[in-house]
Amino acid sequence: MRRLLLSNLPPEVILQIFRYADSFSTANALLRTSSVFHCIWLLNANAIAVSILPRAVRYYMEARVLVHAYEQEAKLSQVYGGRPRSNREAVIVHVRRFLEASDLLWNFYENSILPNLKLPGGTSSYIPLDRDRFLPALYRLKTLAVSCHTPQIESPALESITKAELIDMCEVISWLRRKCPLETQEQLGVQELIVQSKWLQTWFDRHLAQLRNQDLISSG
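Above: the chain's sequence. Below: its structure in token form.
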């Protein structure tokens, strides 16, 4: 009688197991299970990675748009930082650094607003952003800051931004300008957002006007 082993499953079933892995750590454990799993991984690594990425990276869609903006900029500038790198390597380095800094920025934001939430009457009219609004807004801001170097190829994903998302972005840039210490901005590499705040404000005003016009047309 044939033993019931995972490696005895049809290759297409094993491929689906890989694609439904919840993380790359899980996929790595699977590919070490047997030579069959390892071979299927080697043959389908790109397709498997595309399936896992949305689950492995928080706010994947916003991060993906940011990667695209960096890739467009990389086509115009071949050197990032110190030694020359390939465009893809440079993009990965920049995005990875920003994503790591984003979590630290969220902690600074949360700690800076909590003491100000209580007014003398015991209530507050100010409702801060939660993590699931702050980080995507920060990613979109960074995408805009990168895109401003190449405005002729502005991302369609940013053109379709909603009014609620735009308001969240305004909140984040306002906090960065007023509350985020200069040393923190430098440490986490977000000075670019502050330097370009006028350009960002112009972009906000333009898109907010467009959204208001769309609301008027819809209500009419």
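Residues 79-86 have pLDDT under 50 and may be disordered.
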